[in-house]
């Protein structure tokens, strides 16, 4: 006796959270059944393996049918075929768009193209995440990217509106979209210690301050692209390190203010010019796309690593960066105060976040 | 020209991409009613078109209004080639034709295509203006209300129950016409859907006419079925109970549906001459084999059963003369009717006096091509295929189908008579068709009814009093209706364990719901008997003969199984018994479902004893005693599980010796004229005193084993196939209606009866287990109205379809079962109280007391929506995104959150919604869908295909209910689910027919909130009365 057909349709669509997770994780029906058996569900409920198999198949079929709608979450809310309570709808959407930390670190900043998609095999092997799940996560990134790429207005709001994600998740997606669009390099070995959270934090600061939307709030509100004009202007900062007097003055201002306040004062004093040169050069180079991509590599190389090798405590880094930024205001010959603040305000936040082991 | 139908096409959304180049669609809509078609403009390049059309007006007869569905077709405009159809929506406008129901249909409807399924949605507004029509010879029956619910609907009161109405309509099946060879599957499916829609409309109208003739205003327990007879045609038949109903709440609070067809309704019956012979088409109840050609018509009637339980005891005389008097009264009321049948399963208090037992009749027929000379054969040409019914054409064999049913009904009637009953309640009819063989089945419960309700103005007050005195509460219906000195069969009776006065049988089988006043001990449970019998493949008459030879044995075995399982549960009565016999190419299947209970009035059931026939060696004896022990243990365990602990009765109280618990039953041979059989089947197991199972071969051993394989539901679960579960009275509001379908393929190698039975048993048990597992998060809960349907679509395929509803209940209160029988389930109690309150008034029912309680007993829907309590609104509101301003008087509120726009529509096979009050019936939902695919694999195989289709059917039912302004469907039933597959061709087809009553309900908690807030809000001065619940 073989089962040809076996279905269960409820007026309210039944959603089993555990099975949903297994489905999202890309397990096949058989693997999912095996995992469920291992969870001890048979003992708890007195069910048989056959029942479990049928139940799992049924849920998988439902999820498969729902997947089309999950690709455009507002459709899930308006469709009539599945009657699902709003709280469950929210859960379905949120979980569907949730991604794995390990996966996102592999893809972050890469072009969301077919080429990358081909690499998913390797990512799957490397991270231990099933290929199916990798595909879903990749497709999610790409889908969100495609929808909001050309859109005006706040990136987070756009994502929330079109994908009905929670605020947190929408912010994460904003970071992913922003990174993908600007192709920031995040995969280098020296960046491996950074978490997705670190990058997302930086992305948010950059979206707030460095994009077109940051200055022109209404008309050309594009959150995805960096403000090209701003990047061009950053060249002007070069004078801070190119002009020797200015550099010395800057250094003395910082040193006077921080004397006795830093545990690594002498190291700071010796390294000041190097650090300052590093930070300003990063700014000056941002006119080239290639250098934009290497922003994080440069920041780590030019600032994080030197400080770390001298064992600066985080509190000292904070004090230094504050003073370093503020002191520029006292440099009489320097005319680009606003530009400096726009640059350094964001960079300071990023560097503090990036500065850890 | 009594009606104007107005339709407005507002917008569409989520349309499919029809133009690959632009990824967009140029959509327009055709609106068709009868022969008239209107078109909207083409809305270019959009998947969410906004047509915002003018009002399309159709001026039509009310006859057409009843028969025709409104047909809305969405198309994609194409300049160079033919326009592509996106899909269709059929809207039954019947609910707009009577007052108190819906006044406007407005909402989003799924656009359905028989090949692609649902493809987007369309927003439509439909209205009807009816004009008064003074033509007394009209053919329409606008205004007669239809209910699928098999009890008096909750917000109504029965004034008179007139009795049985039936009708059938036949036509050629478009699928089997010559033209089908050249048209597309889509065209063929649509022709079929449309035809069936037309036929149901006509059928309903004709039934309505009969009701008017009987001076009724409603049909309750309306059951409409399709027989797909293949080559020989398509039969649509319906049965129901004609009633005169009165709305309980003040009618003034409801907006009239249209230009008052209701007034017209109330007046017109009076001017009709009273005609008692309400049926005129049944003149020949006796079927004569009228084969004009060889093997054309063939009929075998099989001996049919009367299930009763019997015991022994001496006769008592009390109540005899009264019984006779009562019978006289009622008989006179009933005998005017050809068939004294009621399709109701629950009754107003006092109507049901005694229950005799289950009566059933089956007949095997050979299908013949239905002659249909008036058929012109061009489909799609709207009314050129004017429907035919038996009265309207005169061929050589005009009344075959009608005569078949008449014959079966006659048989049922005579069975009931043999049981001393003059009426049959809980009556239903069904068919099973395989190739050219058809089994017609009818069953019901023989009963004695009180004359109250049955006739206008004949109710005698003093008699009424005596009824009350003589019927002790809670056991009256168990008392035998037949004369104990002149019993129709040898039987053993005992004194009623409740009142000690009357006689009762020791086991009672019925097809009705448990009466609300019945005294029950413990809880009930679902009991099923399952059976397969192999049959040789044969043609025509040989086949019919083989089937009819098998049937009595199947009935016998099903009965034995039921009895054994009932005893194993320690119970003594079955309610809601439904026996389905399904015929296939090479086998017959029997599935009986019922809810077992322990009735306090009936004696305690005896145990089951096992006897070995060959007491040869010790090990065998040991085995037997082992089995016996197992059975005894099971009984004890079940008693504990279902909390069956009847009070000990001492012999003195009873007065006469309590007989040994024993059971005998007997098969009563059909007495009807058409019976060819002479053998008499005896179900009483010879002369053995106790219920003994003899184990004389392996078969019998298997049977005993199979008895024990039925595992009880896991803890926290109960199940029954009746409306409510005895012993549970504290339902909480969570409900989940579901349909589950399984098809299994039997391996052809081991096809023996034994293996078949085992497979079938396993299939059903596994299905139940799966349900329990799936619904585990709802525990404690009860599966109510569990309805199994078996079909045999192909040689080695068995299809089982289950529809049921899971209802949660409060565990803590559930434990107090001692009070369970005193106070029935909450919902019931509340409505019953109302009914009880109303009943004294019925004696003067001439002056219809619809205004008797002017302080409205129920808050009208309008009050609920305007009362300004957002929380309450959300619960009852069906949000419709209709942009129409004139829809505003309906329940509407801002959506709870910006995103969600789809209101929740509950569906349940029960007639009530736990924790809620039904405030309005909006009309009957009766929908028929066909879905076909030529890309089965791509749609996820057979499971994916059917899963999608059933989900789509649910969605379309919900959308129609929401558009009517309702928020639930009650008495929902999936009457047919015919699934055919051809995996090698990558094809499948499925037909589904569902029905139910669209209603508006209000949560009881919200009602309370509203009643307290009402004075403050003061928006509805008519609603200041206290809620009676």
From TrEMBL, chain A:
Q: Which GO terms describe its cellular component?
A: nucleus
The GO biological-process annotations, alphabetized, read as: platelet aggregation
Record InterPro entries: FIBP
Which GO molecular-function terms appear in the entry? fibroblast growth factor binding
**Source organism, top-level taxon:** Eukaryota
What is a single Pfam family found in this protein's UniProt entry?
A: FIBP
Q: What is this protein identified as?
A: Fibp protein
Give the species. Answer: Phodopus roborovskii (Roborovski's desert hamster)
